[in-house]
Design brief:
Elements: H1 9-31, H2 34-39, H3 41-70, H4 76-97, H5 103-123
């Protein structure tokens, strides 16, 4: 496994955004009157936006770490089968979400689609090992 290359500023920005988001979640309702907050949607959404961007950057950093650690090391056959399993999970999850029989199937279907989609996005950034064709031997007839 190779050492992943993550810019040092990325984890710092993630921590700062999360801290600012949680501070804004407590500070904005305390400083701004409720009627102003109800009218100004963007001001009310600042904590959500900061925390959401922090979580998104964390996922991006995780993709970079996983991809750089296992690029060119995954067997192409395993890569293909794992991709097919992920796609099958997405299809099963969608079928679970669109059925009208039981609520637990909907809940688990939604969770399966969510996890399989995140896994698909991450796995699609991984590059499988290259298959090197063997050269023809000298004794082989042409």
């Amino acid at each position: 496994m190779r050492r992943p290359h993550v810019p040092i500023a990325l984890p710092i920005v993630i921590v700062v955004l999360l801290i600012l988001g949680f501070v804004a979640m407590r500070l904005i309702p305390a400083v701004v009157p409720a009627d102003v907050l109800n009218k100004n949607v963007l001001l009310a959404a600042i904590p959500f936006i900061l925390i959401f961007i922090g979580i998104l950057l964390t996922y991006i950093m995780l993709i970079v770490i996983v991809a750089t650690a296992i690029n060119d090391l995954v067997n192409p056959r395993f890569y293909t089968w794992f991709m097919r399993i992920i796609i099958a999970c997405i299809i099963i999850g969608v079928l679970g979400m669109f059925q009208s029989i039981a609520m637990p199937l909907y809940t688990h279907g939604f969770q399966l689609v969510f996890i399989a989609t995140l896994t698909y996005i991450m796995w699609s950034h991984v590059r499988p090992a290259r298959v090197i064709d063997k050269p023809l031997s000298v004794d082989a007839p042409v």
